[in-house]
Amino acid sequence: MTHSFPVRVYYEDTDLAGIVYYANYLKFIERGRTEFVRARGIDQAALMEATGIVFAVRRVEADYLAPAKFGDDLSVETEVEAVKGASLVMNQRVTRAGEVLFAARVVLVAIGAAGTAVRLPADIRRLLT
């Protein structure tokens, strides 16, 4: 299942040339992941309160393919590649009218209250697959 999240490029997202600053793509895909998880019925604040579990980014592999510009309407597409015991691998793309501008593979780890990796609860794994 691919989840799409719309993003409009604002002036604050760009550099002096009106092109999206490279680090802002990471913010865009973070929003996309958050909305993906929410759409799957997972309340991250409630998960943290009930279990102490939060998701932390362990690795990002990113490809910048074409620039987005001020005023562009973009879509952040998110899909799950794999759900493992304590980790989750997601593929994300930022597109404009179907053209892929940015692509990333993101590895997330479930972290418990002690700050170490913990196994994802079975119900959460099911919601993510």
Overall average pLDDT: 96
Oligomer: single chain
Sheet-strand content, in percent, reads 35-45%
User: What is the share of helical residues?
Assistant: 10-25%
How much is the radius of gyration in Å? 16 Å
N-to-C span = 9 Å
Ranges where pLDDT stays below 50 over 5 or more residues in a row are none
Secondary-structure-derived class: alpha+beta
CATH architecture: Roll
User: Element order, helices and strands?
Assistant: EHHEEEEH
> How many β-strands, per DSSP?
5
* Outline type: elongated
- For CATH, the homologous superfamily is named as Hotdog Thioesterase
Quickly count the helices. 3
As laid out across the biggest beta sheet, the strand order is: 1-3-4-5-2
CATH class: Alpha Beta
Number of self-contained structural domains: 1
Tell me the CATH topology.
Answer: Thiol Ester Dehydrase, Chain A
Q: Characterize the largest beta sheet: strand count, sense, and whether it forms a barrel.
A: 5 strands, antiparallel
Describe it.
The protein has a five-stranded antiparallel beta sheet. The protein has three helices and five strands. The mean pLDDT is 96. By secondary structure, the chain is of the alpha+beta class. It is elongated, with a radius of gyration of 16 Å. The protein has helices at 24-39, 44-51, 122-128, and strands at residues 3-8, 54-64, 73-83, 87-96, 99-111. The chain has one domain (3-128): Roll (Thiol Ester Dehydrase, Chain A), CATH 3.10.129.10. A hairpin with a 2-residue loop joins β4 and β5.
